[in-house]
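User: Quick sanity check before I run a bigger batch. Here is a single chain. Can you write out its predicted 3D structure?
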Amino acid sequence: MTSRIASLIFFSLTLCSGQLHAADEIRITRAQEQALGVATAKASQTKSTRTHGLPARVVLPNNQLHVVSAPLAGYLEKMAASVNQHVKKGQVLALMQSPPLAEAERSYLKAQTRFQLAREVMLRDRQLFDEGIIAQSRFSASRSRYVEAEAELSGQKQILMLSGLSEGAIKNLAGNGKIGSMLEIRSPVEGVVLEQTGMAGQRIDAAAPIYRVAKLSPIWLEIEVPAALLSGLKEGSAVEVPAYHAEGTISSIGKSVNPTSQTIMVRALMTRNIDSLKPGLKVEARISSPSENLFQIPNSALTRIGGKTAVFVETPSGFRIRPVEIVSEGENDTLVNGLDRNQTIAVHGIAALKAALSGTE
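Assistant: Done. Predicted structure follows.
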């Protein structure tokens, strides 16, 4: 008898259409809900979505990594810094002997001498020209030689600066005229020595790397986010690395999808509790994205109708199909977009409602 009553109830619920439309509605009474095992609950609205367990890699920002190289050829006489050492900007990292440096200094002193001579001649000819003793062509020629000598001196000074000499060292060279071949290799920034590639006594060519120095704060986190979870994600969303209690925010979202993994690279700038985040470390990240239209519902409430994800929303006379967009899936609950505030949805008996909608048991 019970089976027959249930069949009659089910028959009264049957509809002909199986397509997903917002107007599709199943008329059902409270007694029929109980007979079919349908249970309902309020959709819980949340203001943020948390995406857990995303694979990520700690990366050093490009503008914080500096390669310290030899400006000239020579040999390393002394290494004054070691790996993992904290160094200050301008601190001497190594000393090297460089014969090309002595040649560059010699060229600078010659250019300085020519400049001084050309200047004296130009000043003398200017006075003679003003007094009407010499022609303007002679003064113009001496002034041209002065300009050329000045440009040559400036060029030789730039060569010394590119060779690693400071303004003070160049001024001392110009003052005392003492030529040397000792070159100080200094740190361009305050940071930590990550790598040492040179050794004392080693002969190296110009531009050969000697150290890698980096500023380790802040630091980047490159997160592989499945393309299906990008909805609602935006720059400024909070990012956490729970295992290290590190925090930061999304700074950029990739514009292309990896064809193999179907993920998009999302970069976060980590600024808090990052001492334990070392470049190259692989971690799991969690992203929190604020939103006003997200609802947390049980996984049992979801169904597929007409190739789309949907839920059964309660109406005064029964239930109506409502398509939703999945934002993130959890073990027991799912965050969706597409519901309204204070809506009640079916969380059990979904198979019976779906069968009633399609007109089949």
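The chain is about 25% helix and 40% strand.

User: Great, the batch can go ahead then.
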